[in-house]
Amino acid sequence: MALLTPEDLENLLDKLEYNEKVIKKVTGFEIKQICEETYGTFPDSEVVGIVPVTSGNGIIDNFTASLAAIVNHFGLKGFVTEHTDISGYNEAVSRRADIIMMADDHIFIAHNLKNGKISTNHECTGIIYSEIAARYLHADSTDILVIGLGRVGYAGASHLAKKGFNVYACDPNIEFLEKAVKELGVKPYERNSGKKFSMIMEATPCKDTISEGMVSDRCLVSTPGIPCGLPENIGKKYKVDMVMEPLVIGVASMLYSVF
Ligand SMILES: NC(=O)C1=CN([C@@H]2O[C@H](COP(=O)(O)OP(=O)(O)OC[C@H]3O[C@@H](n4cnc5c(N)ncnc54)[C@H](O)[C@@H]3O)[C@@H](O)[C@H]2O)C=CC1
Ligand SMILES: NCCC[C@@H](N)C(=O)NCCCC[C@H](N)C(=O)O
Known about the structure:
There is one protein chain. By secondary structure, this protein is of the alpha/beta class. It has two domains: 12-121 and 250-258, Rossmann fold, CATH 3.40.50.12150; 123-244, NAD(P)-binding Rossmann-like Domain (Rossmann fold), CATH 3.40.50. It is built from nine helices and eleven strands. Strands 8-7-6-9-10-11 form a six-stranded parallel sheet. The chain has a five-stranded mixed sheet with strand order 2-1-3-4-5, sandwiched between helices. Helix 6 (151-162) links the parallel strand 6 (143-147) and strand 7. The structure holds 1,4-dihydronicotinamide adenine dinucleotide and N~6~-D-ornithyl-L-lysine (0TF). N~6~-D-ornithyl-L-lysine is lined by residues 2-4, 52-53, 59-60, 63-64, 103-105, 108, 121, 246-247, 250.
């Protein structure tokens, strides 16, 4: 799995401020509103304990500090435990955390100890980025393209299918594509079909996955994918709006999913 790097985490809140402006412009909503409406929840002064985890590739510089900054940005009290791993978990509970956040190399969770709700970053990222795409003010139909049907993309495609969107998808992993067709009613997208989209959700770890033949004249690319799937020249040639940010929007979605 592609892990975040300390470089990804640089200028996080500046990137968020830029993306919040784009989201407001292309959907008419603030990110908090979208989260509240998506999950039917709102914050209630929860305390969030953030536990560094040393397993696998170990601590990522600034990862837990970034989470604390994100939690505080959304009006909650967050703290990073002094201890790591199990000792850190014990410390968070002892310091009366309502929500625990922690990540190893495979799973990044938020667990609300008060109501028992638990969420993963993959699923919540897929849900929020597909929800942003689905709210595009200049959409020319309910057709939406999902590029990548892995942990994030499949969750996004599932969310869109439940909302009644006409979901097309592509992924070189035939098993993932067949699963999405069978379980979600997704339509396989053929790159040479000539079909264009005004809403695209890209969730791959590859660059330049979006080709010229995919984008309508006005198009919103909503992508958590790292690196960016939209080639610069295509973004400039067409009126493409893009929401792309490495961590904060997905973490906001996690928090709202467990309130
Ligand atoms: N911005 C954020 O908050 C977050 C970003 N991510 C990033 O999102 C991306 C996806 O994450 P996961 O779903 O966990 O990865 P994954 O590895 O589970 O799934 C990626 C999928 O993309 C497919 N793929 C690769 N090249 C493709 C192409 N050219 N066209 C269509 N599909 C293609 C793969 O076959 C795979 O099914 C990664 O870059 C990850 O770092 C993940 C979580 C949060
Ligand atoms: N964009 C959000 C998804 C993050 C995920 N791709 C990742 O890098 N996970 C590894 C996090 C490891 C954290 C580390 N164990 C620590 O606690 O510092």
